[in-house]
Amino acid sequence: SRTIIKEYRVIEQQERELDKDLASLRDMPAETEDGARIKLYVNTGLMTEVSNSMTVGAEGVGLYRTEVPFMLRDRFPTAEEQRKIYKQLLSAFSPLPVTMRTLDIGGDKQLSYFPIDDANPFLGWRGIRISLDQPEIFHSQVRAMMRASEGLNNLRIMLPMVSDISEVDEALSIIKKIHADILEEGVEVAMPEVGVMIEVPSAVYQAQALARRVDFLSVGSNDLTQYMLAVDRNNTRVSSLYNSMHPAVLHALQQVVDGAHKEGKTASVCGEMAGEPMSAILLFAMGYDALSMSATMLPRIKWLIRHSSISRARKLLSEVIELENPREIQERIEQTFEEMGVADLIRAGRE
Ligand code: PEP
Ligand code: MG
Questions:
Q1: d(CA 297, CA 301)
Q2: How far is the CA of 137 from the centre of ligand 2 (A)?
Q3: Which residue among 180, 185, 318, 326 sits deepest, i.e. has the most Cβ atoms within 10 Å of its Cβ?
Q4: CA–CA separation, 351 vs 6, rounded Å?
């Protein structure tokens, strides 16, 4: 309707003005007044997003959704086509790290030429489960990634939808074997860092055991929220229950970063909540090493961090972690943002 269009125009204008003010932060680190630092990465899927990521001063790619180029075709891309796509991205960001997630199809992500007919797709054949059952797809993808990294060595590989330790052990042995084969063929490429996505409750409880096996953990908070709360992330009928600020989700997030750090590994978040100011401040306080988000949100989160102190953020976290419902949590954060003078970030379109 006209009213909605008008309202969105106002929000658009407010956001544009905010972003204009933030452009000057491009080459500055996301560092607080008291010297605490967090890395800010971008999420991408399309090459067209790369130039945007460059202009906002991202420190690397925290999530490259490899299913996007697969979805844009009507057949599986060949190994050589994949190598070229991956090379383009790795070169564009070199020497910054690029985290490529192995094919995450199933659930809400379907390929027209590889139909999956599951009665319960979100609990069915998806992500790493498909990769391990169809090793030729996984094999050709990992091989293409490693060959693309030749001469650059900025590749990191990330495994989606892990729910069992054995999946990681199996995937790791395949990845190591591919690396050994490639070296034998005379291609000089470093073994990439490998990480696990924490997207289901079982992975939260086994975060430390997972971290022991790999180089990093990255929380997919969109799926983690869906699976922790048993709320379909795409179903509008239950969308009022879908909330990443639910106390149960916050407790889970703290457990994941603690598990990773006990093993001396890094932890990041690459779901939507990493790019939302109110949750980003909590993730920062929990000790996350990096946040990965859309290029649009990155300057705003950087500005927020630069206007915060780690002590203030930790105090806020210690208060909200005691609260029992998401509404109260949000109100407490809004109040703190007003006090900190950063409420502009969440005010757009609210007046
Ligand atoms: C997530 O689940 O939070 C995530 C980053 O992956 P996707 O949104 O692609 O499922
Ligand atoms: Mg996910």
A1: 6
A2: 19
A3: 326
A4: 14
